[in-house]
Each structure stands twice: as C-alpha cells, then as structure tokens.
Amino acid sequence: MPDDQRPYAVLDIDATLSDTSQRIKYLAKKPKDWDSFFAHAKDDAVLDEGLAVATTLAADHEIVYLTGRPERLRRDTVKWFEDNGFPEGKLLMRGNNDRRPSSMMKLARLRTLAQERRVAVLVDDDVKVCAAAEKAGYPVMRADWGLDAETQPTLFEAQETEGRT
C-alpha cells in the first residue's frame, strides 16, 4: 500500500516511548521547574516496549508522534528519535503557549489527522487522553508499560491540569 494511503498510528512520547522517571523530580518542586524538566528530556532512556510497538506499527502504518512537549523541544526530540532507532514519522508538538489539558489538545489533533486519513490507533499512557479518544471513536492502545500517570499525581497534574506535557 502506498505511504499516502496507509492509516495513521499515533504515538505519545513521554512515558510511552521515553522513560520520564529520572526527570519527574523537577515537577515535584514548588514551584515546578519546567525548564529543567524539559531540558533533560533529551536524556530519557527508551522504553523497550514503546520502541517495539512503534517499530511493529511502522510496518503497516504511517507513524505520527503526538506529544504534549512544547514546540521548542523539536530539535532535541528529533535527535532523540534518531539516536534511539525510532521509525520515521510526523512529529506534532504542543504550541509553546498552549496550556490546554492533554486530552483536549490531543483530541483536537486526532480530529485534524482523521480528516486526512484513517487513524488506526492511538498509543498513549494518559488515562484521560485514552478515554477522550475512545469516547470520540478512535481505537486506543493504553501504554501501561511506562510511568503511570494515575499513580504519579505530579505528571498527571502536569498533563491534565496545567497543560504542560
């Protein structure tokens, strides 16, 4: 099937493909140290399960990486993908000043993607993102192999209340 006809497989990055556990400490501070949290994203280890899912999906899908990371991290994020052997794909990032909850921001992006072609699956760790996508009719694979936002209130707050990741 030609690349422009393959359905999209949409993958989150943080706690789905990358291990954020070493930088979550920056969000536990008062006030949160967002600059350090994002500055260290380039040092994240790979979550092997995430890489395996991305590689498997790339065989039959066009990969889209959909992240709550701000646009200013594009260069570091692209380099991280290249350095760690991730399949090529389109990278959609949060606008630098976008503070919508991740579930709202990502659902809007999914709707835009779905206007181009079928979204076959969303792979994400965030339970609210997964629930919103499922409710809107998108197939979801919950990435339960990384840092779990349900049990990590610091990350969950950042994703859903502050709209920062």
Automatic annotation (TrEMBL):
It holds the Pfam family HAD_PNKP. Gene3D superfamilies: HAD superfamily/HAD-like. Signal peptide: none annotated. It comes from the Bacteria. Residues 10-143 form the Polynucleotide kinase PNKP phosphatase domain. This is Polynucleotide kinase PNKP phosphatase domain-containing protein.
